[in-house]
Amino acid sequence: MRKILAPLLAAALLLTACGGSEEEAKPLDSLEVSATEEGKAPKVEFDTPLKVPEQIIKKLSAGDGAEIEPGQTLSLRMSSFNAKDGSTIVETYTSAAGDDLALDDQMKNGNPKLYNALEEAKVGSQFAFAVPGVKGTEGAQSQPAQLLVFTVESAEDVEPPLEKAEGEAVEPAEGLPTVKVNAEGVPEITIDDSAEKPEELVAQTLIKGDGAVVTESDTVTAHYVGVQWSNGKKFDSSWDRGQPSDFPLTGVIKGWTQGLTGKTVGSRVLLVIPPELGYGENPASGQPGGTLVFVVDILGVS
User: Fold this and answer.
1) Domains of the chain (ranges plus CATH)?
2) Residue 22 pLDDT
3) Burial category of 231 from C-beta neighbours within 10 Å (exposed 0-12, middle 13-18, buried 19 and up)
4) Of 95, 121, 173, 240, which is most buried, counting CB atoms within 10 Å of its CB?
5) For residues 56 and 53, what is the distance between their CA atoms, to the nearest angstrom?
């Protein structure tokens, strides 16, 4: 699994474009990009300070790979420079893996010029992309004007997420909460009052899917429902909202990260999460405390 774009790069690449075109690329006249051997960053030189009144996208070289298609995920190798002094902000040409960028509706609506330039290109193409600075609002950092030089390393089709868990049913261990599916196809959790509460994390597969294995660095698309062990009360449900949720496994409670890592797409998983891997015994207002029970349908990963 490749890495997702760093926030600074994501903002630069996805913010709404404000004019600019290959015909209007005069601020990049001083730009010189020298090719180097594979696995090394190209040598980039330009006059500073580089004035960037608007976004400018310029194709530096045409690739000879496959044509890029809408809906694909692109792997980029990139160098980003501060337009004022030419200093390097970040560089991924020499990283173990490239940065992922989805050629999807979010980009099409947020930055149509960049979207169109990529859609019309081939794998191996190299671009220069000048981005004006952004003043930070309250609680947000300012972003300097940047010059990005990036190469499209690969383009891959993206599997759409499943609509529901699918695979082989698994007989759960005894003593766990029971899960039954109602008439609408939504799992309902029942906790036996006489059952012994687990002291450690339980991650019981109920349906074993045959899709990709989930890794800790993945973003997961899932349907889920959660109840408290103490009273069986439901506190959250994506099914109630009518659509699955996307979340990075690095950004959720530890019980989710540990319990879903290693499972497969298509699986339905029963999680019983002790307080220390959830929100604690007495969490902040609005969060459920104590031992928590979830049913999670893993519908996709990215």
Assistant:
1) 3-156 (3.10.50.40), 168-301 (3.10.50.40)
2) 46
3) exposed
4) 121
5) 9
